[in-house]
Amino acid sequence: MKLKNSNMEINHFKSTILAGIPSELPPESEYDCTVNHAPVRKDILTEEEKKLALKNALRYFPSHHHKTLAPEFLKELRDYGRIYMYRFRPHYRMKARHIDDFPHKSKQAAAIMLMICNNLDYDVAQHPHELITYGGNGAVFQNWAQYLLTMQYLAIMNDEQTLVMYSGHPMGLYPSHRHAPRVVVSNGMVIPNYSKPDDWEKFNALGVSQYGQMTAGSFMYIGPQGIVHGTTITILNALRKLNTSTNDDTPKLFITAGLGGMSGAQPKAANIAKCISITAEVNPKALHTRHAQGWVDEVVESLTELEDRVKWAKKKKEVLSIAYKGNVVEVWEYFAERGIQVDLGSDQTSLHNPWAGGYYPVGLSYQEANEMMVAQPELFKQKVQDSLKRQVRAINTLNARGMYFFDYGNAFLLEAGRVGADVLLHDGKFKYPSYVQDIMGPMCFDYGFGPFRWVCTSNRPGDLAKTDRIACRVLEQLRLTSPVEIQQQMADNIHWIKEAEANKLVVGSQARILYADAEGRIKIAEAFNQAIKNGELSAPVVLGRDHHDVSGTDSPWRETSNIYDGSGFTADMAVQNVIGDSFRGATWVSIHNGGGVGWGEVINGGFGLVIDGSEEADKKIQSMLFWDVNNGISRRSWARNSEAVFAIKRAMEVNPQLRVTLPNIADDDVIEEVFGGESHPKEGMN
């Protein structure tokens, strides 16, 4: 009976997808208050622009439905600041399934459907009913009509077609060829002069552009696991920077904020790095979701209880992650005033979006803040500015006592500096490093190490466990001949993959993340492909990565913050990365404006590659993954980063077809001598 019901559910799921946008209107959906919803967006459109937004939304539906839908959509626009089309939200369980449970003519397209559904799984997505995966505004689609139409296109397309997507809108299926990407995605690609935060608010409200974050709009999000490995590496290396006795085995204290999306990885990573961590979160639903999922050990609601719990954990030398239900500014100020030693500090609130729910100011409840940001936006902005100044004052106090604070690339220092908080040195540079500048850039990205990831499309834990063992075996073999410069990275990553299953990292799809360089990614992928071919793995595997990687993203405040040759504000690398991936075998590619540090502050690109045990998949692995990594190493090498110069020379030895322009290093003494002997024109002269 259970099998029969399961088959009926799958058949209903398939038929619903194939139907696309239903010809008959489904009943209106009740607003589900048990689900974590996106904050109400800014009322930014004029009345004429609201009429345009309504016309834009209605074009998805036949004209005989417009009289019914028009007032409904206008109410959504006025109530929420966006038209989400809640009526059309499907009522099947949104989740990753076995690849064959999706109706399809192309196996590659079915894999993409799996990834889309995983992005919108209630256990994965931050605001699932608003199609937002993480980061407060990182959307998979702008509305439910786009979702329905996209899934229908994917279900009927074949391997001689490519689906083109403009900011969540499926423009259509176009004839291509079997070696072309099945889907090409662009998100938020506006004219540069129209890339300010209010421009996003306006274009998104009009229904013509969206913020895809990094892996939300590219269908490659795998839950908080997607960042937990990188966070673990960051915390481990931050701990190595502390001037402490190696004999002291008392866990160090790490304070940070954010549990809603990618930030939810922090307590898990701190546990793996053997810390005591406090992660503050103002959204009760987000906090309790992470606690229920086992990503944080305990929840504390008072500062005195928090102090007592930390002291007890230190006394017992207990590794512990604590979620503080409240504002992180309260924690910073309390620990600074009480003189409690804090070893590490950071912040992962969504400060790329400070005025619309990315950062909640101290002194307001979660509900009060959500109401004020809409009803009194200027007052809310002032509250955020004051809160950031208070937060920085407390952080500076603790830093003076020996705390190592790092910016986690969420625009914390950028926004704090913009409001006048004390985060700048005399030369205008930030007094605290980006974690990329101090850790991820020189230790990982410059050597080619980044967040390689994969998803088992069988959706079976057993297949994922097999991939873990395969990856570990490959890395251990590679380590035997790895140069001394990357031995630490190899050791950390081998330890990570050995512990991955025990750390219970899976939320949603059966996915894994593992930092690896080009050689590691290629060898692991080839081993997976062979395992699929010989039946050890029961279904294809999707390969991908976070955009937060060696090559994928140009972001002067994060991924490329250790680029010092003046090219930090250029985006050639990210754009070239996507173009190169598309003709070297990627199953889908994406290019986004925004993500991580904010709209207009970053360009980032991603890919997905489905491998199925074929010889063709092997060729794509070798061609695409080699380019995807070495494109970034080449750029970092040209910026004169010594680790990247080492890495690209090694890559050229591995593949004689690769020839990269190497920098000649100018002697600083020569430069100074030239400037010292130069005759400068008098002031006022041309």
Mean pLDDT: 93
Global geometry = globular
Structural class: alpha/beta
Proportion of residues in helical segments: 40-55%
**Percent strand:** 5-15%
- Low-pLDDT regions: 680-686
The number of distinct β-strands equals: 17
Largest sheet entry: 9 strands, mixed
Radius of gyration: 25 Å
Number of helices: 22
Query: Multimeric state of these chains?
Result: single chain
Distance between the ends: 89 Å
Which SSEs are present, and which pair or pack?
Elements (H helix, E strand, L loop, with lengths): L1 H18 L27 H12 L7 H15 L26 H13 L12 E3 L3 E2 L4 H13 L4 E6 L2 E7 L7 E5 L9 H10 L18 H16 L12 E5 L8 H7 L3 E6 L2 H9 L5 E3 L2 H14 L3 E6 L2 H11 L5 E2 L20 H10 L1 H24 L3 E2 L6 H7 L16 H9 L6 E7 L4 H19 L7 H13 L11 E6 L1 H16 L7 E5 L7 E2 L17 H12 L4 E6 L9 E9 L3 H24 L3 H13 L13 H9 L10
Parallel strand pairs: 3-5, 5-16, 6-7, 6-10, 7-9, 8-9, 10-11
Antiparallel strand pairs: 1-2, 3-4, 12-13, 12-14, 14-17, 15-17, 16-17
Helix pairs in contact: 2-3, 7-8, 11-13, 12-13, 16-17, 16-18, 18-20, 19-20, 20-21
How would you characterize the overall build of this protein?
By secondary structure, this protein is of the alpha/beta class. The chain is built from 22 helices and 17 strands. It has helices at about 1-20, 45-60, 65-80, 105-120, 145-155, 195-205, 225-240, 265-270, 285-290, 305-315, 330-340, 365-375, 375-400, 410-420, 435-445, 460-480, 485-500, 520-535, 570-585, 615-640, 640-655, 670-675, and strands at about 130-135, 140, 160-165, 170-175, 185, 255, 275-280, 300, 320-325, 345, 405, 450-455, 510-515, 540-545, 555, 590-595, 605-610. The strands form 3 sheets. Strands 3, 4, 5, 12, 13, 14, 15, 16 and 17 form a 9-stranded mixed β-sheet that branches. Strands 8-9-7-6-10-11 form a 6-stranded parallel β-sheet, sandwiched between helices. Strands 1-2 form a two-stranded antiparallel sheet. Helix 16 (about 460-480) runs antiparallel to helix 17. The N and C termini lie far apart (about 90 Å). Residues about 680-685 have low confidence and may be disordered.
